[in-house]
Amino acid sequence: MERNTINNSALNILVIGTGMYVCGRGTNSYGTVLPAIYEWKRHVGSVNVYITGASSEGINAVKKKIEELNNLFGFSIIPKYYCKNTANHEAYIDAICDIPKPACAIVVVPDNLHREIAGSAIANGLHTLVVKPLAPTLNEVVELIELQKKNNVYCAVEFHKRFDRSNIKLKDTIESGSIGDILYFIVEYSQRKSIPTERFPKWVESTNIFQYLGIHYVDIIYFSTKAVPQRVMAIGQKNWLFQQGIDTYDSIQVIVEWKMSSGNIFTAAFFTNWIDPEKTSAMSDQRIKVIGTKGRYEADQKMRGICLVTDEKGIEEPNPDFCSIYGSKAGEITFQGYGIDSVVQFLDDVREIETGILKMKDLETKRPTFKESVVPTIVIEAANRSLKENGTWVNTSELMPHAIQKIS
Predict the structure, then answer these.
(1) What three-state secondary structure class fits 369?
(2) Cβ(47)–Cβ(40) below 8 Å
(3) What's the rounded Cα separation, in Å, for the pair 174 and 283?
(4) Would you say 78 and 45 are in contact if contact means Cβ atoms under 8 Å apart?
(5) Cα separation, 56 vs 49, whole angstroms
(6) pTM for this one?
(7) Count of Cβ atoms closer than 10 Å to residue 372 Cβ
(8) End-to-end Cα distance, the chain
(9) What is the pLDDT of residues 31-44, one digit of tens each?
(10) What are phi and psi of 226, to 5 degrees?
(11) Would you call 349 exposed, middle or buried from its count of C-beta atoms within 10 A (0-12, 13-18, 19+)?
């Protein structure tokens, strides 16, 4: 596939989705994707933005946020919008076909649409970033990787926790050998009740809390150890949400047995829920610990050292490291954090691939590429199967060689 150059032209960015993560829809914030694009434009200068959504309500929400961001940053992004107000989300097809090259897509839609929509972007020659998880099933992931290879584009998953210094330090600690052989991980990760009931009510029943949220830490364990999952067991509870008329799990607990290249076996236990009280001090309550034969590493990733108390909101513990707005000494605002870094890194990589500075193969072990998502997806699929089978152990070791053979 012949490459276009962008030495003297803008990169064209297509954002597919208009929700909370794109623009902070339904909140007083600006999300993560749009602020990251503004930060990237600040540094590279020239960028064209295209935005597509499934409803005029979503497009109007984005337009309002764009107007506010233009005022905040002191420079303007004027997107081209696509919307059809149809149940089958056809607007993205027009946008994918219209966008001039060189171009990339950032796919921020419900999990069950990733294969369809990301696949269309890739088939039309767009470098593509997809929010986690890449897809709910291994077959879908393999199909996307095969499409990527066929169309010779760069594709990654927006696993932003790989950019969190707390998790980079975790990886460094494990690789140094200072805590010895790993024995077990414990992960606790939860969010407020408003996430399933107010933010994602239209598609919450098509996913679950482990697939949507816990998968971040499955990826972090793989990122830190390069271990292979051997078997998975999952159980869950449907209590409060079911009483609200929402047929999905309040909480899911998953145990994964992993095998290192050294032959060492360890387990990881994930405790996830999205029914935390609305008055909890942070949107996400998250912590991870790893115990080894020579020591342990513990990271409280909710309590980041800041506590804010006001009459209006009570006690808050904001995460300054994810996606926060800051005022500079010059009076200019900036958005900073590992959420911003994740999107900006993808845009940087696309630009350097298009200009010939980077080759896609150079990024395969350095970024959360589609191939890197094979392991997290195997764990998702096995956990979902175990849930259906009342917590039985599901062997995963035979799936890995099959998947690698198909995509290698």
Answers:
(1) strand
(2) yes
(3) 28
(4) no
(5) 18
(6) 0.94
(7) 21
(8) 20
(9) 999 999 999 999 99
(10) 55, 25
(11) buried
